[in-house]
Amino acid sequence: MKYLWILGFVLGSMYLGAREITKKMQDMEYSINVMQKGFFYNDRAQIITGLKQFKQTYGEFKKYNIYDYLNSSQNMEENIVLNTLKRDEENIQALQDALQNNQILKAAEIHAGILHSCTVCHAITRGW
Q1: Domain locations in the chain?
Q2: What does the alpha-carbon distance between residue 66 and residue 63 come to, in Å, rounded to a whole number?
Q3: What is the pLDDT along the chain (128 residues), one digit of tens a residue?
Q4: How far is residue 5's CA from residue 98's CA, in Å, rounded to a whole number?
Q5: Domain spanning 21-126: which CATH class is it, in words?
Q6: pTM of the predicted model, to two decimals?
Q7: N or C: the chain end with fewer CB closer than 10 Å?
């Protein structure tokens, strides 16, 4: 009986962890969409709001272990995922700098780079 309780606790913790990750992903998606609307409607405040939300959520998301997303056959692609995460950190800073310097086209390119990074990780983790 004790083992069943332990197993239940472990499985429950894994489920809660997966829900937390899903929530962080949804929050990042939302903030990216806020930025995108800002670019579409020439609303700098909306871009900045979305970027602040993305930066915060991304910082929280990075605390998770990437191996929770990768199965054993995908572990050889860990360098791609790690480089993508590092590039996102650089892109967040570059996007802030571009906005401060009123380089909106450059900021839009960086935003597209962040979207590309998302797609790369999703392609790996989902086996596309």
Answers
A1: 21-126
A2: 9
A3: 555 444 344 444 444 467 888 899 899 999 999 999 999 999 999 999 999 999 999 999 888 887 777 777 777 788 888 888 889 999 999 999 999 999 999 999 999 999 999 998 888 878 77
A4: 53
A5: mainly alpha
A6: 0.79
A7: N
